[in-house]
Amino acid sequence: MEDGALRFLRGSLEPSPAQGGRVTGYVQDLTELARTQADLKESEERYRELSMAATEGIVIHDGGTIVDVNNAFCRLMGGYETDLTGKNLLELAHPDDVSLLAARLESERDRSERFRLRTLAGDTVVVEITSRSAPRHGRIVRMSAVRDITAAIRAEERAEGQRRLLAQTDRLRSLGTLVAGVAHEINNPNSFVMFNAPLIERAWRDAISLLDEVEREKGPFTLAGMPYARVRGDVPTFIENILSGARRIQEIVEKLRTFVGGAGPGEMELVDPVKVVEEAVELLAPLVARTRGTVTLRSVGRILPIRGRAAEIGQVVVNLVANALQALPEKGGQVTVKTVGEAALGTVAIVVEDDGAGIAPEELEKIFDPFYTTRRGAGGSGLGLSISHTIVEDHGGRLTIEPLPGAGTRATARFPVAAGPDR
Ligand SMILES: Nc1ncnc2c1ncn2[C@@H]1O[C@H](COP(=O)(O)OP(=O)(O)OP(=O)(O)O)[C@@H](O)[C@H]1O
Ligand SMILES: [Mg+2]
Predict the structure, then answer these.
(1) How many Å lie between the centroid of ligand 1 and the Cα of residue 253?
(2) What value does the mean pLDDT of the chain take?
(3) If you average pLDDT over residues 328-332, what whole number do you get?
(4) What confidence category does residue 239 fall into, taking pLDDT thresholds of 50, 70 and 90?
(5) How confident is the model at residue 264 (pLDDT cuts 50, 70, 90)?
(6) What pLDDT is recorded for position 266?
(7) What's the per-residue H, E or C state across the chain?
């Protein structure tokens, strides 16, 4: 060539009989084509280098089948290129996101969306994927950029959790103020009832002898539209009902007060867990009789004292044993209260087991919520476990409730001992 440049030519020569055997032919200049191909190869190589250096994952797929991946994508998926190419991209999707991903990978929209992928080790990662069409070796394939946003999502979730907790603490605090106010308001009028009902009862006993005389002298008469003869026997029951209703109100008010932190005076002292359990169970004698339960006490291992407030720990035992008794079937059942010395852990566990109704799994997560009860009709306030939980945690311990295999429930209040673990 005149300019000295190299050119690619393709030609063919042929003898042509029609033209007396002259050789004819043509020459084609392929320089341009060769240059384009070289450019293309270079651009593909450059792309590959770029893609390998990228921090974002890049996957090239053809009809879903992975044909090429970069290092970042291999790192994200926890495998080598050979583990990933040839696989269908949808195999890497989280089972719940497969159809979503399938729709998006082929969609022409160049918008990024969130999906969950499963790494080769089975972990879930959250990614943003942007896909577009691109030519490769003369075919149109899909190129997807995959950005790992798992850490960002986790941070977002943590922040959201904290926000929710704060809001809840705030709500609980205002609920606490409200409850303390209401408890106080109810307690005053209720104490009139508690105070006056026994007076009425005494007055009635005195009145009976006078009224008996009236009946003897003047014949049968009525009170409140009922014959005196009947009212005579019924009134003491009416009064007893009023009193027991008022006592129940007092108990609930007491619980509400403890719930909002009204209780808890008194110093932390050395408390003997076995003694606390015995005394608490004694207090429950009427409930034991009513529910026809049998309560068995046992102590296991060397039991060291707890540093705490005996009255509060006693209240926890009362609540747990009362719940156990209340869960028993009508014909009665077994409740076992074990006090277990766990010297190596430096803890004492008070374990209450019953063979009663048990707790359904969907209820289990709600039972510590204040006011959650399945015994509303039977006078349950739903505060027993909530209060117990707070008390145990205040003592540096843990309260857990779990179903027993077969039937029934196990409640465990575990406290640190005053001396610390044995070594
Ligand atoms: N041992 C148990 N067996 C079966 N269910 C239980 C047991 N302990 C607790 N529960 C369930 O947990 C709920 C909440 O218990 P919690 O002690 O807080 O309130 P409550 O017993 O209903 O009311 P209160 O303690 O004021 O009498 C109960 O209503 C019951 O459904
Ligand atoms: Mg209870």
Answers:
(1) 18
(2) 87
(3) 93
(4) very high
(5) low
(6) 64
(7) CCCCCCCCEEEEEEEEHHHCCEEEEEEEECHHHHHHHHHHHHHHHHHHHHHHHCCCEEEEEECCEEEEECHHHHHHHCCCHHHHCCCEHHHHECHHHHHHHHHHHHCCCCCCEEEEEECCCCCEEEEEEEEEEEEECCEEEEEEEEEECHHHHHHHHHHHHHHHHHHHHHHHHHHHHHHHHHHHHHHHHHHHHHHHHHHHHHHHHHHHHHHHHHHHHHCCCEECCEEHHHHHHHHHHHHHHHHHHHHHHHHHHHHHHHHCCCCCCCCCEEECHHHHHHHHHHHCHHHHHHHCEEEEEEEECCCCCEEECHHHHHHHHHHHHHHHHHCCCCCCEEEEEEEEEECCCCEEEEEEEECCCCCCHHHHCCCCCCCCCCCCCCCCCCCHHHHHHHHHHHCCCEEEEEECCCCCEEEEEEEEECCCCCC
Point out the ligand 1 atom lying closest to the alpha carbon of residue 382: 19
Query: Which amino acid, one-letter code, is at 194?
Result: M
pLDDT of residue 110: 65
CA of 384 to the centre of ligand 2 (A): 4
Å from CA of 333 to ligand 2 middle: 17
Atom of ligand 1 nearest to the CA of 252: 26
Q: What is the pTM of this model?
A: 0.55
